[in-house]
Each structure stands twice: as structure tokens, then as C-alpha cells.
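Task 17 of the worksheet. Students: predict the tertiary structure of the chain below and write it out as C-alpha cells. Keep your answer in the requested format; marks are given for formatting as well as content.
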Amino acid sequence: MRTPNVIVCLAASCLLGGGCLMGKDPKLKEPFFENFDSGRLDPQVWRATLDVYEVRDGALYVEGAKKHPLWLLKRIPCDVKIDFTAWSETSEGDIEVEVFGDGRSSADEEGGYVGSGYIVKFGGWNNKTSVIARRDETEARLREDDERRVEAGRRYQWSIRVRGGTIDWYLDGKPFLHAEDQDPLCGPGNDHFAFDNWSSKVHFDDLSIVPL
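Model answer:
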């Protein structure tokens, strides 16, 4: 039988972003695929922290999420390969995902957000910079690139491969950014994947997550 204090803590966890559900998220042991052909986001598979994500023409579409991620309700392993297709409709760029987050975090009422995992962003800050960052995309960049820009309408094939704190990011089959973290984020509390966005019109499709 749970004590009253434990019940209160569980209730508070539920109210603060779905933490009560997070503990029940299944562990991903087999390859996971999502092509969004169903035309809808299954609430048993995805947790949206803001109602701006939808399926359009067989792909995930988001605009104006303002750092409110769409979390996958499966716990990913520490060694993993994540592939998907992504494109931005405009020259703003800003194609973004979060890897090894907590599965529930989002921006506060003032719009501030420090991620709970690794922020992987292509063409951020109005298409000026691409980064792999550890939680704080401004203050804790593990690697960045200021040369390559997102081309509006171009479909990019992303591949993110993580092993033991080593992160390799490929675009269209070619190495893009490489980062190493001596204190890797993975395991309980850092075991979810999310699509994210600030304001640009972005599409994602053909997600594949494979344990390594």
C-alpha cells in the first residue's frame, strides 16, 4: 500500500508533464519504424508537449513549436542508430531533434528551454549554425558548423549514430558533425527521442531507430 506522501509525489509528477506515464514507457529492444502513413499521431506512441504537430501528406509537419518537443514513448538504448528524412519549407532552416532526453520536458512559460538530452540542430538561429549540444544549445555545444546551410525544400537524409558517448551525425550519407562526451547522457531519465522546432515550417518522415 502506498503512503500518502508517495501518492502526492506521483500526482505531482503527473501534473508536471506526464512523468507518471514516462515510467511506463516500454524499452525499445527491436528496430522501430514510423512512416506516418496512418495519417495521425498515435497517442500510444507519441507525446506532444504542444498541439502543433500533425501528419500532412504522409509526413510529420510542425511549425511554431517554440521548443515544445514531440517525444517518442519508447525508451531508446545507449547505443543506437537513428535515421529519418527531414526538410524545411523556407530558408529559415531550423531542423532539430533531441536524443536521450527525459521524454517530457518542454519550454517554460517565458519560452526558455534547456534540453534534457543532446540537441542536434541543422541550420539553427535563422540558418546560421548547426550544432550538437549537451542540453544547453547555446552554452554547451560539443560541436558546431557555421558553413553549411539548409536549402529550402531539399530533403535531407539524416543518420545519427551513438556509441558510448561518441555521436556521429551524417547528412545524405556523408559525415557532417562528430562529437564525444566523456560523461554520456543515457539510461534512466535520458532515454527518449524527440522531434522539435522553433518557428519554421518543417517536415519529418521515414523514422528508423535501431539498437546497436
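Marker's comment: Residues 28-211 form a domain with the Jelly Rolls fold (CATH 2.60.120.560). The chain has three helices and 15 strands.
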